[in-house]
Design brief:
Length: about 350
């Protein structure tokens, strides 16, 4: 499993390095950015990327700093090559800060933005305001309703890490990642591991990608979905190595063909394969006061546990060896046929 984790780290670095080079090329240059403790994020005129411009605030506390930064983002574009990230007509009606979570309430015009403009706006706001020490995560609201994407899925809590790529030039690109997922075996009493190579939009976080693939189910024939049918992802976020997974009440649908620990550790083990996640906590519509069936309290934080692996299932190494053998056999057959 150490080999798998090392592979995931290398894969993640491969994806992040191009974004770092893009970030260095963006805005007013790395030298200027390095000389400031704070930056205000804008968008370029072509609406293709976010641009960070150094800023020296005058605020004396977190709440004053939030208000000051919001004002700069809405009214001030200090360089002719950039524009404010929040478009004209999109109004921030109010905001509140509670327990390191910042709630932003926009008018209905926010929901009328096209996808590219909205993602750029959201990325700029999140990256700007999460610089404030007292802000760990941000929630967006349109009117009194939580922000949803084009498919009606709740966006949920966001941190600076929610945008794993620079969402400008990269916004419409497709990335490829190799992720390790855990599904139920055919009997429903154990876990089987499946490595999937998936293509995904560059502005989606890896933890959200993992959950979406878990909900879709396995590609191979050895496993079956562990998460109850009808479950939808409300939101997912990571803070200090803990991944918070918020599911809808479809998660409470009971399929007793799948044992309790297999359901829980399908989620926990899959997310724990990511290098930035050590523990997982599960919510149902934001509530973790209940138990899943009888044994598993949602209020508990769970760590990776491989005790429920199906001993009869083929290991990843065995699958790789079999695949290599098939390639060799096919090559030999083609050679003999020539």
């Amino acid at each position: 499993m150490r080999r798998n984790r090392r592979k995931q780290i290398i894969t993640l670095l491969i994806f992040l390095l191009p974004a770092l080079f893009l970030a260095q090329a963006a805005g007013c240059g790395k030298e200027q950015e390095d000389s400031f403790d704070y930056h205000i994020y804008y968008v370029n005129k072509d609406l293709t990327k976010t641009v960070a411009i150094g800023y020296e605030p005058s605020a004396e506390n977190d709440r004053e700093l939030i208000q000051e930064m919001l004002g700069k983002m809405i009214w001030d574009a200090p360089d002719p090559e950039v524009r404010t990230a929040i478009p004209s007509g999109v109004l921030l009606k109010s905001w509140k800060l509670e327990k390191a979570q910042l709630y932003l309430y926009f008018n209905s015009a926010y929901g009328e933005m096209d996808n590219v403009t909205e993602v750029l706006c959201r990325a700029a706001v999140v990256r700007t305001l999460t610089q404030v020490k007292g802000v760990e995560c941000i929630s967006f609201y349109v009117g009194d309703a939580p922000l949803v994407d084009a498919n009606g899925t709740l966006i949920g809590l966001m941190t600076a890490d929610s945008f794993i790529e620079n969402p400008g030039e990269q916004i419409n690109t497709i990335q490829t990642a190799s992720i390790t997922l855990y599904f139920a075996n055919k009997e429903g009493n154990g876990l089987v591991q499946e490595v999937q190579e998936v293509h995904y939009s560059s502005n989606i976080s890896l933890e959200k990608l993992v959950m979406e693939q878990l909900l879709k189910g396995p590609n191979g024939k050895e496993g079956r979905p562990a998460i109850p049918e009808g479950t939808k992802l409300v939101g997912v976020s990571v803070l200090d190595g803990v991944c918070f997974v918020n599911l809808n009440d479809g998660f409470l649908n009971q399929n007793y063909e799948i044992s309790e620990p297999v359901v829980i550790y399908s989620i926990v083990n899959s997310l724990a394969e990511l290098p930035n996640i050590n523990k997982v906590q599960i919510f149902v519509n934001g509530d973790n006061s209940m138990s899943y069936r009888e044994k598993f309290k949602l209020g508990d934080v769970y760590e990776r546990n491989l005790d429920y692996m199906d001993g009869t299932a083929k290991s990843q190494e065995e699958q790789i060896k079999e695949g290599e053998k098939e390639i060799i056999d096919e090559t030999q057959e083609e050679g003999s046929g020539g």
